[in-house]
Specification:
This protein is of the alpha/beta class. It has one domain (3-48, 66-354): TIM Barrel (Alpha-Beta Barrel), CATH 3.20.20.70. The chain has 16 helices and 10 strands. The strands form 2 sheets. An 8-stranded parallel β-sheet has the order 3-10-9-8-7-6-5-4. A two-stranded antiparallel ribbon has the order 1-2. Strand 4 (107-108), helix 6 and strand 5 form a beta-alpha-beta unit. The longest helix is centred in the last third of the chain and has 32 residues, at 333-364. The model has no long low-confidence stretch (mean pLDDT 94).
Length: 381
């Protein structure tokens, strides 16, 4: 089936699974430990039922909105994903281009395969940059300066990865970027010729934001050793203030999944809060983000914009988040499925699917403007 005709995100996932090496598919489509939070993130959306309305003029529907002051064609951004360039050659560039053409934000991860500078070179509009604050604060400061130089329009500071949650599949697969050339990996990659040819045609095969920018990190072994010891367990709210002093643009705090944390983040002057549990990849047993969204919105009010991340697989899920008070949303796996299935065209198709689902569902709810979608559109029991 042509990518442009794929009908759903689930169909994109199936194509992606066939085309990507097992270790990178598993890296994307799993969670930590028992994966209970990863599974609950998606399942929990079904509890929130929409009101079907009829005999309403639903012509001239509008999905355009804003995200942190940026006009968007729909309130959906692309979340930061580590090793995106291992899902498809030059993956971050493909995703950034698709987002730019579609008119939605793309957020580049610190742990990206293509560097900040490389993505900036291949795009024409500002993108967001996601920052991990490492133990090496000098490196964190340099990343902020590089994001400024690339004219990134927002800094997304991730707060929920002070220690790395264990994902069993990654351990079993011996995950690394690029993959180690073991017999097992070579045999699997041999069944993925499209992926392999793409990788042979690019120089971007390891964490380019780090290699060449950190002393004594020049190969995969030294890179893995450095990265495994750099996530900072001392990261606290004073660290947020430290970054705020370095960055004078829009600041978004990601990884908030608790009411008290949301209140603190808002008081610190965050332009937006991303309600997220890292896609179920960190604290196994944490609440699904859609279940925490309502209480967080009630606690924060309009002091900071609220973006919902983790678990979204459909345009219907996006509308449920908006109905519960989110100002906008971000998708991760949903666009990675498209990227792995077909590069830039696959990401575009994922966005088209989400938009069409939003448009039709909004119409059946009797609404014509996505900015007016709210709790009145939910069936409260």
């Amino acid at each position: 089936m042509e990518i442009s005709k794929v009908p759903s995100i689930e169909h994109l996932r199936q194509i992606y699974q066939r085309r990507a090496p097992k270790m990178f598919y598993d890296y994307c489509d799993t969670g930590s430990y028992t994966t209970s939070t990863y599974l609950d993130n998606t399942a929990a959306f079904a509890k929130y039922k929409l009101r079907q309305r009829v005999a309403v003029n639903i012509d001239n529907r509008k999905l355009n909105s804003t995200m942190v002051g940026q006009p968007v064609t729909m309130p959906v951004g692309l979340s930061p994903i580590g090793s995106c360039g291992m899902q498809h050659a030059d993956g971050e560039i493909h995703a950034a281009r698709a987002a730019e053409k579609f008119g939605v934000p793309f957020c580049l991860s610190t742990m990206s395969i293509c560097s900040i500078e490389e993505v900036a070179k291949h795009t024409t509009k500002p993108f967001w940059f996601q920052l991990y604050v490492m133990k090496d604060r000098g490196f964190a400061t340099s990343l902020v300066e590089r994001a400024k130089a690339a004219k990134c329009s927002a800094l997304v500071l991730t707060l929920d990865l002070q220690v790395l949650g264990q994902r069993h599949k990654d351990v079993v697969n011996g995950l690394s970027s690029p993959p180690k050339l073991t017999i097992k990996n070579i045999m699997n990659i041999a069944t993925k010729p499209r992926w392999a040819l793409g990788m042979l045609g690019t120089k971007n095969r390891q964490f380019a934001n780090i290699v060449g920018h950190v002393k004594n990190v020049g190969d995969i072994a030294s890179l893995n050793e450095w990265a495994n010891h750099q996530f900072d367990p001392t990261l606290d709210w004073s660290s947020v203030e430290f970054i705020r002093k370095q960055w004078d643009g829009k600041l978004i705090l990601k990884g908030i999944n608790d009411v008290e944390d949301a209140k603190i983040a808002s008081k610190l002057g965050a332009d937006a809060i991303v309600v997220s549990n890292h896609g179920g990849r960190q604290l196994d047993g944490a609440s699904a983000t859609i279940d925490m969204l309502g209480p967080i919105v009630d606690a924060v009010g309009k002091k900071s914009e609220i973006i919902l991340d983790s678990g979204i697989r459909t345009g219907i899920d996006v509308l449920r988040a908006l109905a519960l008070g989110a100002d906008s949303t971000m998708i991760g796996r949903a666009y990675i499925f498209g990227l792995g299935a077909g590069g830039e065209a696959g990401v575009t198709r994922a966005l088209e699917i989400i938009r069409k689902e939003m448009d039709i569902t909004m119409a059946l709810c009797g609404e014509t403007d996505v900015k007016k979608f709210g709790r009145h559109n939910l069936l409260v029991r």
